[in-house]
Amino acid sequence: MSKIVHFEIPAEDTRRAKEFWSSLFDVEFKTYDGPVEYHMFQNDDQSGGGLYPRQEGEKGLITYFGVDDIDATRAKVQELGGKAEDKAPVPGMGWYARVEDTEGNSFSLWQTDENATEAEQQS
Predict the structure, then answer these.
(1) What angle do CA 87, 93, 97 make, to 5 degrees?
(2) How many CB atoms are located within 10 Å of the residue 63 CB?
(3) Are residues 22 and 74 in the same domain?
């Protein structure tokens, strides 16, 4: 059984959202440098969450399930009637892919891989 390893919070106002979630659950966000504004917190069990500026059409939390083989899991989602986007790297951390179940519910897959790079994305 896979477990939830991460979730993301799309926000209209990231400052306001960080204040809300920090106050609600007493978590501390760390801001990451990169091409996209991203703030993350981590729980003691190594799970955690991220917060970023909402993209057009996004609504609700995005849940990430940890998997051992992202390519095989993407294929299984499609075999079962769902939809799966191509995997994408988070260099030095792992791979993610947005997927959708048969009812149109979006979620994401995560495979930890410290060697993940843009060049390996072909699968």
Answers:
(1) 20
(2) 16
(3) no
